[in-house]
């Protein structure tokens, strides 16, 4: 799946030791972010949102509001407190959770975090090393913090 919103890296995750991925909440026809679709229930998505927002109590998410308005901020402040509606696939709504603020400063993702994303791009979208490089080299958080050579080495691309 392609998402017409920009992927960027911001904040600093203690678990990943660097910036983490977010999707901008404004759609742009020239933006293309790879995504992966999972068929889960609304209850399962609420459980994921509870985990990502460190919510120990019940969490209410208005899915209909997200569909109507394009997004719904269900917890603030929170890194992942915004439910973003991405459209439909086979009659099912597609949602992701992201940050409510698009104006965050970019931060450098760790090599390990990038390797996890790279593995996902290979597995889900069958991208080869040059395609992965072309995709990642323009993302905020990477463009400011990684040389082309370093990014190629993380991807596993051999240098000439």
> What topology, given as strand order, has the largest sheet?
5-6-7
Secondary structure class reads alpha+beta
- Which sheet architecture does the biggest sheet show? 3 strands, antiparallel
Q: Estimate what percentage of residues fall within beta strands.
A: 15-25%
**Cα Rg:** 16 Å
Count of distinct strands: 7
Strand and helix map with partners:
Blueprint: E1 2-3, E2 7-13, E3 18-23, E4 33-34, H1 42-52, H2 63-69, E5 71-73, E6 82-89, E7 92-98, H3 111-125, H4 129-136, H5 148-155
Antiparallel strand pairs: 1-4, 2-3, 5-6, 6-7
Can you tell me about this structure?
The protein has 160 residues and is of the alpha+beta class. Helices cover 31% and strands 22% of the residues. It has helices at residues 42-52, 63-69, 111-125, 129-136, 148-155; strands spanning 2-3, 7-13, 18-23, 33-34, 71-73, 82-89, 92-98. Strands 5-6-7 form a three-stranded antiparallel sheet, with helices on one face. The protein has a two-stranded antiparallel ribbon with strand order 1-4. A hairpin with a 4-residue loop joins strand 2 (7-13) and strand 3 (18-23). Helix 4 (129-136) crosses helix 5 (148-155). The radius of gyration is 16 Å and the shape is globular. The protein starts with a strand and ends in a 5-residue tail after the last helix. The mean pLDDT is 94.
């Amino acid at each position: 799946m392609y998402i017409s919103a920009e992927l960027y890296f911001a904040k600093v995750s203690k678990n990943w030791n660097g910036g983490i991925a977010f999707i901008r909440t404004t759609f742009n026809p020239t933006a293309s972010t790879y995504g992966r679709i999972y068929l889960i229930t609304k209850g399962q998505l609420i459980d994921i949102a509870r985990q990502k927002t460190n919510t120990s109590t019940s969490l209410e998410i208005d899915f209909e509001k997200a569909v109507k308005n394009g997004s719904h901020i269900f917890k603030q402040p929170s890194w992942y407190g915004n439910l973003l509606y991405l459209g439909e696939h086979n009659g099912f709504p597609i949602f992701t959770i992201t940050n409510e603020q698009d104006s965050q400063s970019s931060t450098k993702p760790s090599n390990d975090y990038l390797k996890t994303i790279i593995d996902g791009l290979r597995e889900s979208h069958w991208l080869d090393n040059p395609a992965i490089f072309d995709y990642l080299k323009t993302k905020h958080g990477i463009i400011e913090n990684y040389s082309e050579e370093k990014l190629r080495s993380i991807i596993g691309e051999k240098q000439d």
